[in-house]
Amino acid sequence: MHFLRSFIPQALVMSLPLLSGPVYAGPLDEPHLDIIPRTADETARISDVTALPDSFDAPSPFEVNSAGAATVRPRMNADAFSQASGNMSFEDELTFKLGNGLFRKLWVSSPSSTLASDGLGPLFNARSCQSCHIKDGRGHPPEGPDDSAISMFLRVSIPGTEDAGNIKEIEGYLATLAEPTYGTQMQDFAVSGHNAEYRLQVEYTEFPVTLSGGQTVSLRHPTYTAADLGYGPLHPDAMLSPRVTPQMIGLGLLEAIPAADILALADPNDADRDGISGRANIVWSQEYNMPMLGRFGLKAGMPTIREQSAGAFAGDIGISNPIFGDPFGDCSTIQDACVNAPHGAGDVRGFEIDAKGLDLVTFYSRNLAVPARRDADAPEVLRGKQVFYETGCAACHQPSFVTHRLNDQPEQSFQLIWPYTDMLLHDMGEGLADHRPEARATGTEWRTAPLWGIGMTETVSGHTQFLHDGRARSLLEAVLWHGGEAEPAKDRVIDMPPADREALIHYLESL
Questions:
Q1: What is the distance between the alpha carbons of residues 165 and 158, in angstroms, rounded to a whole number?
Q2: What is the count of structural domains for the chain?
Q3: Which domain range does residue 186 map to?
Q4: CA neighbor of 132 nearest in space, from 119, 145, 123, 141
Q5: Beta bridge partners of 4
Q6: Where's the Cytochrome c domain (predicted)?
Q7: Is residue 150 one of the residues assigned to a domain?
Q8: Fewer CB near the terminus (10 Å): N or C of the chain?
Q9: What average pLDDT values come out for the chain (511 residues) when binned by 10 residues?
Q10: Residue 18: how many other CB atoms lie within 10 Å
């Protein structure tokens, strides 16, 4: 793992003070976790249990329990993603439910008689977390002009320079700046007396892809427009990135994967010449004031669930919190009326959601359970599993990890999990590019999406729309959009016998 040193600039390491306590220097450090180090025996056992299979006659041991002991029985209804970790204590279930209440809470504008709920906006994308993460599942783009974009928005930025928007402590950081008028994301709602920033407009162009056996699949290529701009034109160099809300399950387990195990999978220079060159996104943590491994968000732009939650409160709802403290949310300094509008922060709470409230939402988000696999031993699914591995899908969609032993998070501690992601960035080609960097992620790179629970998307969310912007209307369409590093695997899917392709989809539906 000699390449890890390149992630931590020597100047940063040399500048760290000599303290008697722990010194955090970069992405190998995980200050958000209370870790019990692994023994040599445990490390050897983990290597054995996470090795790729060499036989496909039966499911791998423990494969059915996608989240280890935290796995729950699948509910075949819209509440399937809204269950608490299966190994949660009765006492902590109350904390989970309190967090759920805050997650579902509808915020109102200030001033208001409901002092515990005011502070919305002034500009916002939704009034609650649940409004975007409907049933804790996957969002979707607007379906026609009469449908809202409640679970989708546009991130926005302009290129930075060596001196502006850069974080020199992170090698390879791609400098960006907030768009001068519209900030870092576009808000399509506003409280009374303010204009919304825009209306999301999506247009599609269809084109066919011919598969072996004579099958033709039509893919839709989206064009996004920030229409009805409320505060004047965008900067000529504005970079827009469409994002639908991802599913919420298993986040705490992803957070508990050792950073060293994720970084060990990185191969930025493709040293093994397999065409796959996953890279870690290294981001600056606002909470810990240090470089950390990016884990969350479609480009792995956030390091922890708590920071991701705080960023969503600020950017999506306009709610100040201990990490992002501006009571006006994402309003730019040019938007004077927005910056100076009444807000809900005050002497009692300090922020519109305080540390206790943020911790409750974090606990809820950390413990949304992953349902168990379905039909894992069905012959068609086992054949699809073999196709998945032989096609090369597992090169990025890493099947399994074992989480850290943790002192204070029993639900996530030392679990064998099956998320099917390496948590790394991969070049997915021009077809999926948004041409907007995020920390170290380029405009063609995306974090490998976890696949656990993907077969229950229609059950939970009522649709089968996938990828970062929901353009794919089926799992097969999602596969056919893969490019860049995944182009050879996609071509194998196009050329394989139709029966193998069908088995592959059955396998994905079982996850």
A1: 10
A2: 1
A3: 38-508
A4: 141
A5: none
A6: 379-511
A7: yes
A8: N
A9: 31 32 68 96 96 95 97 97 98 97 95 84 96 95 83 96 94 97 96 96 96 97 96 98 97 98 95 93 96 98 98 97 95 93 78 96 98 98 98 98 98 98 98 98 98 98 97 98 98 98 98 97
A10: 5
